[in-house]
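Protocol step 4 of 6.
Sequence for Beta-galactosidase (Nonomuraea africana) entered exactly as in the expression construct, tag removed. Do not edit the line below.
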Amino acid sequence: MRNFTIDGDAFRLDGEEFRVLSGALHYFRVLPEQWGHRLGMLRAMGLNTVETYVPWDLHEPRKGEFHRLEELTGFLDAAAAEGLLAIVRPGPYICAEWDNGGLPAWLTAELGPRVRTRDAEYLSHVERFFDEVVPLIAERQVTRGGNVIMVQVENEYGSYGSDALYLRHLTDDLIAHGIEVPLVTSDGADDFFLTGGTIPGVLATVNFGSEPEAAFAKLREHRPTGPLMCMEFWCGWFDHWGHGHVTRDAADAADTLERILAAGASVNLYMAHGGTNFGTTSGANRVGELADGEYRATVTSYDYDAPIDERGAPTEKFWRFREVLSRYNPDPPDVPELPAPLPPARVPLTGSVRLRDALDELAGPSVTAALPPTFEDLGLTHGLVLYQVEVPGPRRPYRLRVGGVHDRAHLYVDGELAAVLERGGEEPVLEVAGPAHLELLVESMGRTNYGPALGERKGLMAPVMHDRQYLHGVTARPIPLEDLPALPYEAVLPAVVPAFFRGELEVAAPADGFLALPGWGKGYVWVNGFLLGRYWDRGPQRTLYVPWPLLRTGANEIVILELDRAGEPALEIGPAAELG
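Step 5 output, structure tokens:
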């Protein structure tokens, strides 16, 4: 058995002074078959530790139903096999540009602003989550023959609240569940954050992207002793749909890393390897000082301009970081080989079916209520909901008012597309005579993952109005998208969307690729039944990463759900990403 302890201003591993050189790599953003390669890349960059969050919503998607816990344990075991120590951050809130900051949608729908507080009902849910997850981490601590050296309490809590009793409860609960290695907190390097998010007797660390000297000086004002550590060195950044691709100069990032280490501090690169927000897992942000302004949804790629790119290849930032880190962790192993990607290919689409003709296979049962039920009311985390409501008549045309769309809606009047509505967008002036049949196909995007807007609901947040009159008696039909059933495709490709389109990609052997849909609008892509994620011609992301484990030798089914505009009946496979 081994020991990892805090001794004054230093970490000690088995009695020897130890500097933590860590990199963030989230097991839930990388397919398990690729963990070994990515972990090897961390070692080759010169790191000795890997850090990961644990997303609550991934493991308890429905209350009391736990799934995929073997992925957490498998990842920690794979890191140990690669010779890497581990830092685990089980939340219960993680942020991470992940949907709802990792809090399950059913939880926040039930409790609202009571989450992340001492509220007894919230804590009972946390206890159930910890009962399942924390013992798996505890049995992999270095003190028990594993590789876990630190466990984080909550995440950047000083950016959110000031409930010290809540933080103390989490601390005590982690210890009661067997955590023996040092507990830590991480917050921004400001009085505001450090007074709200730290816990007496628990190591405090800071998060920043630049000016490490000032950040550590601020930490020392609050914690005169203890090891210095940057738990999140933001060496890149993430992207939002409709906004520019964010990058950071490699030389500038390497200079900041050098200054962190020259200060005698430990570090965790956020991110060392970003990976992908597969499916509907990407989060969203709200702009402004109070994080309550304009809504911006995060793209599918989580490349993050990290030193190891989305496909696992070393970037210029990787080589510069490796040079810096070699002065503190000499003789890193060779860089693992990355096999060649798929050759360029054009894949014809040979079958299709309109969404409305596939509802029997796709959709859940209809629910009728006085007011529009939200996605959460319908038990749907993400996907589509088809709302239907009648305009009474006869009556002359009046303005139709549709507010509170979370997040995008196609409005049909008597079967004809009348408008596309977007959250935060300008509401079109649309007059409708009665009687009329209205349909709103509402699509959810990511839930806000940071700030006071955490826990938002999806769907229609307000009833439809005809002039000043509410339209009551709404029918809603949920359409989940994660697990795609067999659909009744036909050989004819319709001009009318929304529709599913199908094609087959032939490969000689599985390899990575990047999928593009030039000329298409907005939608979703599945490869052999696995939902890659969302695409949108709004950019900046133009390609979706297709990892090799999703493919098989021979024919591979690719399915597209297009909501806005179908382009030429073909998709493209290329060897490189286009992220903007």
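Step 6, annotate. The longest strand covers residues 384-401.
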